[in-house]
User: What shape does this take?
Amino acid sequence: MEKKIVGQVTPEERNEIQRLFERRNGLNELAKILTAENGDLYEKLVKDMGDTATKFQDWWNRMAYKYQWERAENSNWEINFDTCEIFLVSS
Assistant: This one.
């Protein structure tokens, strides 16, 4: 696996993706214990997971466009929450 710095975001932009990242992780943990028998709560979880995934991807798309980050086949971007640095990670 190769990791290369391709950019940096502002602390405000980092905070936005960090909130979405933590929310997505929390929803994924909740999904492990909640079942369809929970009815309305389950439907709310599914909708929230979809909304959060969309916002998460939208953030990456917006920032990639704004900062013109390098792209590569079979790779993805990662953020270091401490430094606000963006890495291109190739497998």
About this structure: The chain has a mean pLDDT of 96. The chain has one domain: 2-90. The longest strand covers residues 2-8.
